[in-house]
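pinned: reference chain
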Amino acid sequence: MPMHDEHVPGGHEPEKVDISSGYERSDVGVTGIVVFLTSLGIFVAVIGLLCYGIGAVFNAHMNREDGPNSKWTKTADVRQLGNLPSNPELQNKVAELTQTFPTPRVQTDDGNQDVANLHQRENLLLENYSWVDQKSGKVRIPIERAMELIAQRGLPVAPTVEAQPLLTGDSQPMVTVPLTDGFAPTGYEQSEQAQNEALKKQEAAAK
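pinned: its structure tokens
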């Protein structure tokens, strides 16, 4: 009775490989490699053309949106500027270039100077006398002096609003004083009071 190898699926014998020559005697499939490289080259070329076409479409659209070139769209060669922090002359040149652009311009100091100028103008108004309307004699006084005057004179009082006449059928509301006796029973106390009143009614009915 023939015996089957337990390690071979289905009992089939493994394929015998001739290793007497000591090397692989079959050649590499050159056709598959050529096909792969050709496909890869075609794919790269198609993607390159597609990207170039998309870029051309975007550039044409932006050119239409921006309109024709003007004095504000001239090209500046920034490579000639070199190391700006160590060259004051080139810094002045950059300042001249930036002044040719219309406002609002990009801030070159993160807005710190603008904020400092704003605070300086505010301090001048808050700490000094200045005219509001010279013809009418209105003067802006320092904030410290304004606080002193308010502490002495107080704030102006709004005029009393006159009562409007009642409409037909309306009546003046009357308020009865006091509105409450100052004691508000809790829910538990209210339930106890209700039970006591019910017991009193039962006792009165029993008599």
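why pinned: Strands lie at 130-133, 138-140. The radius of gyration is 49 Å.
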